Amino acid sequence: MGCSERQKEIRRRRKRREKISHFRERLPKASHSEKLEIARKLRGMTPGSEVLIKAWNLVGSDR
């Protein structure tokens, strides 16, 4: 039998949190084009991406 929906949801949240922390670690050394890529990936990954983009000062580097 497969996992319950709750377990799948927890796994997705944990993986998302790991990815976000990985992006946060890469951010200080990232070039302008890498910051654009991080912002693009954040938008596709989480619904609260715009809050993170503003908090990480990526607003001026995208769009």
Describe the 3D structure:
The structure is a single chain. The protein has 63 residues and is an all-alpha fold. It has one domain (5-55). Helix content is 68%, strand content 0%. The protein has three helices and no strands. The chain has helices spanning 5-26, 32-45, 49-55. Helix 2 packs antiparallel against helix 3. The model has no long low-confidence stretch (mean pLDDT 90).
Distance from first to last alpha carbon: 45 Å
Give me the strand/helix succession. Answer: HHH
Count of domains? 1
Q: Mean of residue pLDDT? A: 90
Low-confidence stretches: none
Indicate the percent of residues in helices: 55-70%
What global shape is seen? elongated
Query: In this structure, how is the largest beta sheet organized?
Result: none
The number of helical runs is 3
Number of strands: 0
* Computed structural class: mainly alpha
Summarize the structure.
This protein has one domain. It is mainly α and 63 residues long. The model has no long low-confidence stretch (mean pLDDT 90).
